[in-house]
Amino acid sequence: MLQLASIKKSFSGKEVIKEVDLSVNKGEVVVIIGPSGSGKSTLLRMINALEYPSGGDILLEGNSILFKESKGKKHPYSEKELSRFRTEIGMVFQGFHLFAHKTVLENIIEGPIHVRKMKKEAAIEEAKVLLEKVGLSDKQDAYPHSLSGGQQQRIAIARALAMKPKMLLFDEPTSALDPELVGEVLVVMKNLALEGMTMVVVTHEMGFAREVGDRIVFIDQGVIVQDAPPQHFFHSSNKNERIHKFLNTLTRNAV
Amino acid sequence: MNAIWENIVDFMPSLLQGTVITIELTILSLILSLILGLIVALGRLSKNKVINRICSIYISIVRGTPLLVQMMYVYFVFPSFGITLTAFQSAIIALSFNEGGYLAETFRAGIKAVPTGQMEAAKAVGMDYSKAMQRIILPQAFSNVLPAIGNSAIILIKNSSLAAVITVTEVMHQGNLLAASTYQNMLIFTLVAIIYWILHYPLAIAVNYLEKRGGKRNVTASQH
């Protein structure tokens, strides 16, 4: 469904992602983990071109989302054209980023009405179903600032789902949450995975990675160190030194 | 005492006529300068270097020259370029041009104060830049800068008194005329001052209210 081909990214001369290849199949949950500064968030943000890659190409269902071809030449899509692809790929941010001046319901129907050009009544109808799905039907008229972080993140997931995306990207969705609120967000994500949603998740939640992930992609210093199913990745026979060190640090911090 | 009252009754009709012109000057200039300010603010945030530069130069001219000079320039120099305007039109243009420069900086600060995540989230639901600006960024920026716009409007009311020097018959000019013919300087300029104070008062209350409301909102927002 999604292919990243020799994707590269540099920020002011510094290479953050060095020629990464990655493919995601329909219905798959790919969990990206790695130490901070490894480039995992940058990699995720390139998938919907919030960061435009410095090299390589990204194919969604076989079509490039970065370039159009005319007369045998590749031309990068304009910012306006890029926005068309972003409707197909939902994104959930570490900091939620709900629209602060809009109520919960307005947050969810904003995209469907003003981007998808849906009728307002129909959008509201669907938004209510999504709110029920994330367990926040009673909050539809609340403003984001009056909600807890966990509630805001569940609304953000509903907002992304309202666009009916082909896949969802999660950029450390629980890292900004108080520990007791992490669970409620992970439950929603797990249910989505069970329903067959294609997901790429950057996270530090190893329990989630192990339980829900179909593949674990470990990235360090801008390259993929290992791409393996969780049973192999977390197995004691996984002798990769960098992964070992990373997992050890996490356990040490957890104690 | 009676004599003073009689004078006041004599002076008020022309002062009130002037007040109407002052209000017209202020409202029209405010509307034009809000539009101009928004356009220039977006120009200053634009990645296009030429547009960016033009907007910076404009702001620099507004800041670097006195409003009085700007007003004289429009009224007395524009005719040399074949643009002849009435005193009232000249005053509107000079006031809007001047206020637009300051409002542009206000708007720019307001837009920059909206967290970058809001733009990213708007893009992530498929909005392009201009839709994200219209639907998500500007409404928040506008509510951020509403108190500052109120303060600008107050300054604009008082700045409009400079239109007197190019013979716009607003309240200051009317006061000047009365003073020249009656020598009642103290009474007349006291009345003029009181009129300006009364004009500014509702705006001052509005600004106070908006600042309090903004303060409260920020407190609730930062708790999370």
UniProtKB/TrEMBL annotation, chain A:
Gene3D superfamilies linked to this entry: P-loop containing nucleotide triphosphate hydrolases
Q: What is its main location?
A: membrane
Tell me the protein family, please.
Answer: Belongs to the ABC transporter superfamily.
Q: Which residues form the ABC transporter domain?
A: 2-246
Q: What is this protein called?
A: Amino acid ABC transporter ATP-binding protein
Q: Which Pfam families does the entry mention?
A: ABC_tran (PF00005)
Q: Select a single GO molecular function from the record's annotations and give it.
A: ABC-type amino acid transporter activity
Which keywords does this chain's UniProt record carry?
A: Amino-acid transport, ATP-binding, Cell membrane, Membrane, Nucleotide-binding, Transport
Topology class, membrane: Peripheral membrane protein
Cellular component aspect of the GO annotation? plasma membrane
Q: Which organism is it from?
A: Niallia taxi
Question: Where in the cell is the protein located?
Answer: Cell membrane
